[in-house]
Amino acid sequence: MANVSVYNIEGKEVGTIDLNDAVFGVEVNEHLVHMAVVNQLANKRQGTQKAKTRSEVSGGGRKPWRQKGTGHARQGSTRAPQWTGGGVVFAPVPRDYSFKMNKKEKRAALKSVLTAKVEEKKFIVVDEIKFDEIKTKNFANMLKNFDVSKALVVLEDENATLSARNIADVKTAKVNTINVFDILKYNTVIATKEAVQNIEEVYA
């Protein structure tokens, strides 16, 4: 069972916490992590691109010149792909890129990236993140105390969430919205003690 330090928002150590091995100490499955990232990016794609094939482009109904005797190469239509204004050979059409992953696979992938962050010492636990007012400077100062720039912050406080909106390379998330892609994208994961306990309850 991994034991990590707990800090306050000033960056001072105020205690320790034992992390549940069922969530933060699993064997890292790189294949499932890769699959989860591809799944998330694929599901985001609109898939609405479209270009016309030679059968859909207007014009080109008659043969431009007779088959033989002109000195030109034979042509059947002015809307064939080699002509300017012609159709596209293998034109893209609207399609759905999404695919499904099993729930167990998704959970295993999430546990894998959380475990990796703990092993890399890029998982910071804070006793609580609560602000009396919405102020970007307060949130920026907290990150400065931890010497962190690009971070995913898991918290529940609304004022703190709103305070982080204008900070580049920082994303806030609630326990039920964390995902594999964001955990990998941001260098450090900062979570409140309450968030860690909720993650363990949901995913253990």
Ordered list of secondary-structure elements with their pairings:
Elements: E1 3-7, E2 13-18, H1 21-24, H2 30-44, H3 103-119, E3 123-126, H4 136-145, E4 151-154, H5 158-163, E5 170-173, H6 180-185, E6 188-192, H7 193-203
Describe the structure.
The chain is of the alpha/beta class and 204 residues long. The chain is 34% helix and 14% strand. It contains seven helices and six strands, in the order ββαααβαβαβαβα. A six-stranded mixed beta sheet has the order 2-1-3-6-4-5. β4 (151-154), α5 (158-163) and β5 (170-173) form a beta-alpha-beta unit. The radius of gyration is 27 Å and the shape is elongated.
Shape: elongated
Please give the order of strands in the largest beta sheet.
Answer: 2-1-3-6-4-5
- What's the total helix number? 7
Strand content: 5-15%
**Strands, count:** 6
Descriptive key words:
alpha/beta, single chain, 6-stranded mixed beta sheet, 204 residues, elongated, 34% helix
Summarize the structure.
The chain is built from seven helices and six strands, in the order ββαααβαβαβαβα. It is of the alpha/beta class.
